[in-house]
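> run fold AAA+ ATPase domain-containing protein
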Amino acid sequence: MPEDPRYGFSGRGRELLDIERALLRGKIVLLHGFGGTGKTALAAEAARWLCRTGMYRGACFVSFEHGGDAARVLGRLAEHLGVSDGGFDAGDATAALARLVPALVERPTLLVADNLESVLPGGDAALPAGERAALWQALVQLATASKGGCGVILTSRDAALGDGRLAPGQRAMHREVGGMDPDDAHALAARLLGDLGIDPRRAPYPELRDLLQKLDHHPLAIQLVLRALGDTTLTLKAIDEEFATLLPRFTDDTETGRSRSLMASLEYSLRRLSEEQRELLVRLAPFEGGASEDDLLAITEIPEAAWAKLRPALEQAALIRAEQVHQAVRVPFLRFHPVLAPYLRMRAGAEDEGLRERYAKRYAQVAHYLYNRDGREPTEARALARVEMPNLRRALHLRIAAGARDEAANMADSLARFLRSFGYGRELEQIRRQVEEPTEPDGPAPDGNFTLAEYLRESGFAEDALHRGDIHAAFHRVTALLQRIQDLPEGTARGRGSYEHCLVLTLLGRCFEAGGRPATAEARYQEALHVLETLIERDREQKAYVRHRGVLLAELGDILSEQGKYGEARSTYKDSLEIMKSLNDARGQAVALAQLGTLAMHEQGYPEAKQRYREAIAFFGNLQEPRAEAAAWHQLGLIFKRERNWDEAERCLRLSIGLEEDAGNAAGAAGTCGELGSVARLAGRAEEAELWYRKALKTFEDLEGAASQAIQLNNLAALIQQEVRAGRYPTSRLAEARALADQCLKIKSNLDAYSQIWTTLEILASIAEQEGDKDAARGYRREARETFAAFPGNRYGIDKRFGDLISLLAAAATQPELHSHFEPLLSKLEAAGWHIAAPVRRLWAGERDWHALAEGLDGNDALLVLRVLETLAGTAPPPAEP
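> ok
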């Protein structure tokens, strides 16, 4: 067997399982793929593993790197089994097999035939057709005649062996060996750096992750490229940016043959191409990692007849492989060997200006196409965007270098949608910086307006800041941009009343929403809707306007729900859903349905809410949109928290945090940390809860998110106060709790009236009570009752549940003969936790001071009594729409 890989074998668990299953079914296994992916190492590891498990009693390894035939296989196998005496003739396949098969039945053996590409046509040791057929015949007979006594694993760069018996099907399984799993690739890189004595700080994770991805997690490439860090003047950034120039330096002098250098490995494959094919190959130099076949042909202008020969030649040489990126996308994506394009850029003709111009312009069109397709067919669009992103980013760089500022800004805006959805915050920041870098501008607009590039740059930076939780930075950019727009007369491009005006008002509403000002956000959304409806009236065919109206209504629904206006919110969500259905916008429909789930949760319709969130998790997971998936997991966790299912709540919230952190959403992860703190507190784990709350608070302090800080300050104050009351924390911590609550109250006082200020007032009341200040406690509770009762959502919940009862209790106040009929009902309410029997009896007796009646009641009990008083006095506001 070959020696173990120098840096150990890891990962490939799925491949090993597939190999084992295929061998158990009596199939020949062909491992194929690019050179250097570890086919030989995988075959050897499978042999060792299956011998250890007892499936085989031994393994025989035969290398074809320098040639070989059927006799070589039969002879080596005979030596391994101990039957190669003077009478054994490896050249007589029939007689040799007659000796080998009984020995294999007695001693089951796994045969590994390695590097078979060498004996294929065009290989270094190509066999004549007859001898190659004899080799395949011998391998098939060994796998079948011994009745399971001989398992066969083949490795080859080229999967086309030219024999139907070895084609994938009942007799054979083909398993492509691609790049490693990202985590396994990172582990390999870490071991390599350690063994070479390279300081791991010289390979920071974000830059290392990007380089490994660029290398397609290719094992040989990882080993040879990272060795270059032994030169202390090199950095990962320099390696990434100057990869083609540095390619000759990616070597390992301790190795021989194809594995000695990346160029040696690649040139071995290139030798199989004709001179004419090599000349055409240089046209692939602009691409990054591969390309969709239609784009490749449009850019390279390779004639159809020539491509019909070149593509199969490249596939057989293991330089490209065709992938279907999505079942609805018929055009294949041609994945390049990770070193092919950098290698080609060193060749004459690679810098052809016409080629580069076609490349950049084509991918600018692709970016626009994908942006528009994302609304209608998001799964297909995102699958394409993910594989084409390296090309899209390179094309953006070329458009900027060409001075096409507006086109580049448009392209960056299109890419931002995907990078943001994928959670690639670092990459998004890089392209924003690219667009912002000073280059020769296109010049001011003829009417004195600011350019499209300026608008897209400023709105893009604002949206990025908002997504990472930097509300102040977002608000500053949005308000400045809005002022520029409103200073321009109506009818001016990007001026007052334009679509850009509507978009900026929408963005401003999001800033207010994130900053804890839902009423102000509602006003901005309504203003944006007014602008948008005027635009739609002028041009009803403009689908972008109609789609944004659906988005706006969904966001308005969130704000209405946050303010407790649940009836209005439901109506708004349904209007949004209908618009998205009319546009066949699958993602918009998923968002609206998830929002209806949130509404169901507020109304305690937990089964419906769970179903909605699970559907959202599946949908956004399929889209690979981590932030939206994280939000759905978060909401599902909140439902389980309300149901007091602590284990499920914690599981869902932890999944949410992982996705938020992967997406670089610090604010979202911190909010979920706070919810994990609440789960820990309710489950009786106070010290753990405090750690979660403080972690969340620290993040929000760094982000300067006042509304989110207030939530965590409130949580901490409540926790400490409750633990002191229970005797588990010292009374000296009451002062700390009071300071936290005071700080929270100060923040909430500057927010809208819907910040649940009553929860903080209740905490301060409890602290004052524990400190013996009864007057202060009474004052805080009075104010808490008033703010709780003023919140429309609380009134909506009471009216929905007790609407008829409220009217009957009010009527009974003027009809004493009815009192006895209600006493059993009052007793049932008391047993259910609604402690209103005594206040209602006092109300029937003529008492009308709500605060006196509500003394000692919680917010919901006090509000129920207030609603009876209001109904009796005829001062109740109209009931909320169901």
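The first helix runs from residue 13 to 24.
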